[in-house]
Amino acid sequence: MNDDIFFRQAEAVLAACRGKGLTVATAESCTGGLVAGALTAVPGSSDVVDRGFVTYSNEAKIEMLGVPRALIERDGAVSESVAFAMAEGAVGHSRAGLSVAITGVAGPGGGTAAKPVGLVHFAAWSRRGPRLHVERRFGELTRSEIRKRSVEQALDLLLQLAGEITVLA
User: Fold this and answer.
1) I want to staple 116 with a disulfide (CB 3.0 to 4.6 A). Which of 57, 91, 111, 152 is the partner?
2) C-alpha distance from residue 155 to each of 57, 68, 70, 108, 131 (Å)
3) SS3 string of the chain?
4) 54 near 33, Cβ under 8 Å?
5) Where is the CinA C-terminal domain (predicted)?
6) CB 154 within 8 A of CB 122
7) CA–CA gap between residue 81 and residue 61 (Å, rounded)
8) Rounded (10°) angle between helices 80-92 and 58-65
9) Domain 3-164 falls in which CATH fold?
10) Number of Cβ atoms within 10 Å of the Cβ of 62
11) CB–CB of 85/64 below 8 Å?
12) For residues 32-51, b (16+ Cβ closer than 10 Å) or e, as one string?
């Protein structure tokens, strides 16, 4: 995967959002801001991108996005429920109409039998309705490759969500 693909994906996301009057926020853990970076690499992205939250630690998820501590303690930071809470928090703590959140185990360490290296949860959230989740198990790829594939998946999810939303008045 090369950066040209990210650029084309980001352009498509921005065009879809622009056409519907949507703005975007990102909430990223294992990608450390790479999705926001891909979107803002496109000139003129400031009319769509509101902000990005890099919430690498559990405390950051709690403090910046309002993810309930009890949810993290119950399900773990790498879970569907926490991904949704991150995505909801990104919309709730911004002016954005939609968001994407990513939480996972990029490795090379940190994996368990239940949550192995390469497990990543994605959630996309809209103020106006649709909410999407994807769980990916990238396997024993390198940390860099897991992060790159996560950016690709997140951009695809944003594009999918934008496509499901009707034009705003």
Assistant:
1) 111
2) 22, 26, 29, 24, 15
3) CCHHHHHHHHHHHHHHHHHHCCCEEEEECCCCCHHHHHHHCCCCHHHCEEEEEECCCHHHHHHHHCCCHHHHHHHCCCCHHHHHHHHHHHHHCCCCCEEEEEEECCCCCCCCCCCCCCEEEEEEEECCCCEEEEEEECCCCCHHHHHHHHHHHHHHHHHHHHHHCCCCC
4) yes
5) 10-160
6) yes
7) 13
8) 40
9) Maf protein (3.90.950)
10) 17
11) no
12) eebbbbbbbebeebeebbbb
Paired strand residues for 133 = 123
What pLDDT score was predicted for residue 1?
Answer: 42
**Consecutive 10-residue averages of pLDDT for the chain (169 residues):** 79 96 97 98 97 98 98 98 98 97 96 95 93 95 97 97 74
Q: Identify the sign of the CA torsion 32, 110, 59, 127.
A: positive
Identify the CA nearest to 24 among candidates 36, 32, 33, 34: 36
Is 107 within 8 Å of 143 (Cβ atoms)?
Answer: yes
Which amino acid would we find at residue 63? E
